[in-house]
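Teaching assistant's notes for section 4

Start the section by putting this record on the projector. Ask students to predict, before seeing the second block, whether Carrier domain-containing protein will look compact or extended. Collect guesses on the board.
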Amino acid sequence: MVLTPGAHRTLLRTKASHVGKIPASLSLKDAACIPLAFTTAWYALGYLGRLTSLEKGKTCLIHDALSTVGRQAVYIARLLGLQISVTVDSPSQANYAAGVLGVDLSHTVLLSSTTVFDLSRVVRELTPDRRGVDLVIDCSGTLTGEALRQTMWALAPFAHFIRCPTSDGSPASAAAAASAGAAFGAIASSTNVNRTMSSVDIALLLRSQPDALAPMIQQAFQFFYENGCHVSGGVESFPVSSVAAAFRRVEAGSVESITLTYSDEDVVPARLRPKLLDHSAGPSRGVALDPNSIYVLSGGLGGLGRSLSTFMVEKLGARKILFLSRSGAASSSARQLLADLEASKTRPTVAAYPCDVSDREALAQSLSKAEAEMGGKIKGVIQCAMVLRDVLWSHMSYKQWVESTLPKVQGTENLSTLLPDVDFFISLSSFAGVFGNRGQANYAAGNCYQDALARHRRQVLGLRSGLTIDVPSMRGVGVLAETGMLESLREWDEVYGMDEAEFHHVMGLAIRRDMTKEGTLEAKHQLILGIATGGSAHAAGIQIPYYLESEAKFSIMEKTDMVFLGGSPNSQSASTDQPKDKSIKDILVKAADMDEASDAITKALIARVAGMQRVAVGEVDASRYLHSYGVDSLAAIDIANWALKEVGSKISVFDVMAAMPITALAEKCAARSNFVPRELKELGGS
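Reveal the predicted structure now:
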């Protein structure tokens, strides 16, 4: 066995201190599951928990016990003589923990949205004298919210809470860490007992302090070898040529360990990506913003604007930044941004004026005030302002239309009129203006106007600056990431989304183009990012985006790149395990009775919810409400549109969000479906 970074390679070299013996009874396939999971569990229990020196009978609560780390933690805790309790999400998981992991069934605690408020009481009742648990291990490091608070209250005096997060650097991981710290701090400040919280990330330790971790790796491997440890639960293997399927299996929440096998027959597709230049020398090379000029970021106090302003100061040399926002620097995040910029080593001058850019008079006053107070001329504009009012067109009010379009239409027009002669004028638009997006007719209209205005500046007014960048979904930064709406787009985001570094690179190139000889009158006015093709969807194993199938003008894109994959657009559905929504119509047309029709729609709804939440289909309970699975208004719009297209049933967003079980919604869809024979509906009604 070996534990070292970058182990998936033909020839691996590492230090002997990172290698351990494989017991004769253990297959290579099973052994591959051991090093990272077992070392993490051993580090938490044997080192941080310091339980090897304590007497038997101490109590331990393990969250996410069915994960690879969790299963090893259960096994080690049993060998150390601890009294083990685990949390599970369903009765089936409880039976698995009892039957496979050997946990006493009475010590499996069902954790759900309805039982979470009793977690502390239930856990304490499982401990002697209801004193609480001596050790808690959060094996995935993602415990948040009420479950986290209840867990903290279940700690005994002098107890230890240990997180085992993954070092992926994602906003979700950072949020979970911050939440854990805040919750622990609140508990600690309200009691007089000593408690400890720790985090262990073996992958991070391997990269940053491999030599310091080496003795711990050897202790873990030795303990494993001497105690005849084994893999708790099954192991599912995938050939390396099916690595995408392996990751989908992991994301589906498999309780089995997933391994990759290698053979000479495996064919591994190579995905070529353009190499980006070093951001410290690439986009900024040839671009030096004038330190004496002012650069305007309208709506720039949001997620993208905050990121962009820092990039302009640190990489492009901006020294005077003016933020225009309806509320100014009223939010704590805005004030923190200004403080961080002012405290940076370049000491830029920054200001945030409360200004509605759709009000031309107020905008003119703010621009004049900035030039007088900050000392300099405005030489560049980036329009980031946006307001989302997502709702189906049929239910959209005039107020919702105006609120969403005003900053992008009137606001961009005002900025263009008052600031015609600038080095660059860039509007952050969206590809929703090109392809459309369900429930966002108002937002798409505003983006279309920005695209047209950029062309007007160059081709009609003869100005050298004018560009819209149709931004795709952003990973880790921006309004979608901050509001959590990105989860409903996660499938597309992984393939067509853009991360912060890529966004900075694009912005640097765009500014350079307008400020140099590249910014001619013939230069293109619009840059569309995140464009999908049938081939890219097929290669990623995801559903082809709806706009490639529903719009004739994009139909050629559905076939693009397919020739390189040796397939056709229609073969995509055969290569995935996703439910085939298009077959629902055939089932409904041929249904023998209303029950059959309702059952088909119920299964399709469950599959859709499971895909949105990235859980196994079996984990979605048809007797629960859709909103209990995190279906928000945006996702409800998508489901309502899906029902109209695939089921032939016109339902409203209110129907989707109503307090009715999934089965009841399916029955309503069946009763309204144009595909279900009329005689069946008449019999069902009678």
